[in-house]
């Protein structure tokens, strides 16, 4: 291999659309409206149209988006929010920051989503919301989650940071984009996300016009009109330059999803018959856009495989090595080892392999050959 293999190849992705991106960036720079420039409004509209939602609100990053969602929904200190024990820390961090109480729930071992079968058993009179995380690029079981939420009058915030462009498939066969099925969907435009910018960025999606307006106001210091602060808000903005980049890249999002799916299919076929190697399960209620291609490596071999591949110049990543309830900062909530056995086991088993939109056949062949060899000998 001439170039080092990477988990995500952002350089090749940029080079492929360089003239368009450079033009968009130059125009944003020359326009000098660096904050809230016309590109921000235009991108919010394009994002809204793409996702077929009533309102898309842009913000500074995916973590802010979660916080703004919880503020917009009126969650108050002491309220309980249900969140999977196996997720990226941001999902839980904002719950803690707002003095809400995270109520962890175990996950499904094959799809990595929160275990909706356990939801009803942890709902209390203090519960106000559920945050399904569409982990690694596939939607959680939204119809089941929404039905339980409706029954108990809870809000549903879809953490869609890893699943932009995935589609939820309803039982009647109709589809809706990830992040548009609950009350609010939040997302991140971190560079390695399926729709990534050249820095930080985020957004919220909602079908509720009134809530959408509230979210927009909160993201902008709680003001609708300049210097009239109707509610406590935050300063969370998508930069004009980032909006310019995203406007270009949104046009390619479906192609990007297809490219990731092609890489995943090839991996799926290559690894189908390896004992102790479990490829990602595809849920019947979602398409998968593979922000990560995350497998489960059984029999305690995960770390050995990781080191073996590293020696061959192949990166792999453990998303995530420690479940949230066992992270030091979150021990104050009183959870212990053994509370969420599947989340804890997944942290020992999961391994994510390189996947991105510009994967070359020869590179993927080399990765596959080495993984297969590891299990052969
Ligand atoms: C599941 C999930 N939620 C939230 C976030 C936070 O997004 P950001 O890094 O843009 O704040 C991420 C980012 O990695 C994520 O993966």
UniProtKB/TrEMBL annotation:
Keywords: Aminotransferase, Pyridoxal phosphate, Transferase. It is an enzyme of class 2 (transferase). InterPro entries: DegT/StrS_aminotransferase, PyrdxlP-dep_Trfase, PyrdxlP-dep_Trfase_major, PyrdxlP-dep_Trfase_small. It comes from the Bacteria. Gene3D superfamilies: Aspartate Aminotransferase, domain 1, Type I PLP-dependent aspartate aminotransferase-like (Major domain). Its EC number is 2.6.1.-. It holds the Pfam family DegT_DnrJ_EryC1. GO terms for molecular function: transaminase activity. Belongs to the DegT/DnrJ/EryC1 family. This is DegT/DnrJ/EryC1/StrS family aminotransferase.
């Amino acid at each position: 291999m001439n170039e080092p293999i990477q988990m995500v190849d952002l350089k090749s992705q940029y080079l492929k659309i360089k003239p368009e991106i450079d033009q968009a960036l130059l125009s944003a720079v020359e326009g000098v409206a660096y904050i809230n420039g016309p590109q921000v409004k235009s991108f919010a509209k394009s994002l809204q149209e793409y996702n077929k939602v009533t309102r898309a609100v842009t913000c500074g990053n995916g973590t802010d988006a979660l916080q703004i969602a919880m503020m917009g929904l009126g969650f108050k200190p002491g309220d309980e929010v249900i969140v999977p024990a196996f997720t990226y820390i941001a999902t839980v961090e904002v719950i803690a920051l707002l003095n809400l109480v995270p109520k962890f729930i175990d996950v499904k071992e094959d799809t990595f989503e929160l275990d909706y079968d356990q939801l009803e058993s942890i709902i209390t009179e203090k519960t106000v919301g559920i945050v399904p995380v569409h982990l690694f690029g596939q939607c959680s079981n939204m119809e089941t989650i929404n039905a339980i939420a409706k029954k108990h009058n809870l809000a549903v915030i879809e953490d869609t940071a890893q699943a932009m462009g995935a589609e939820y498939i309803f039982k009647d066969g109709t589809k809706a984009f990830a992040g548009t099925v609950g009350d609010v969907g939040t997302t991140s435009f971190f560079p390695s996300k399926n729709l990534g910018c050249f820095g930080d960025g985020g957004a919220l999606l909602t079908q509720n016009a009134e809530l959408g307006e509230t979210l927009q106001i909160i993201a902008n210091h709680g003001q609708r009109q300049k210097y009239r602060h109707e509610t406590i808000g935050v300063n969370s903005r998508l930069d004009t330059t980032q909006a310019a980049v995203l406007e270009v890249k949104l046009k390619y999002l479906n192609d990007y999803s297809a490219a990731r799916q092609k890489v995943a299919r090839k991996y799926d076929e290559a690894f189908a018959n390896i004992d102790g190697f479990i490829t990602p399960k595809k849920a019947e209620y979602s398409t998968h856009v593979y922000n990560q291609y995350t497998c489960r490596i059984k029999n305690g071999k995960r770390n050995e495989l990781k080191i073996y591949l590293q020696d061959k110049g192949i990166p792999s990543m453990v998303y995530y090595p420690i479940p949230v309830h066992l992270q030091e900062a979150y021990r104050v909530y009183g959870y212990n080892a053994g509370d969420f056995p599947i989340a804890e086991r997944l942290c020992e088993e999961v391994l994510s392999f390189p996947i991105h939109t510009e994967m070359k056949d020869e590179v993927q062949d080399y990765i596959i050959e080495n993984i297969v060899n590891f299990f052969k000998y």
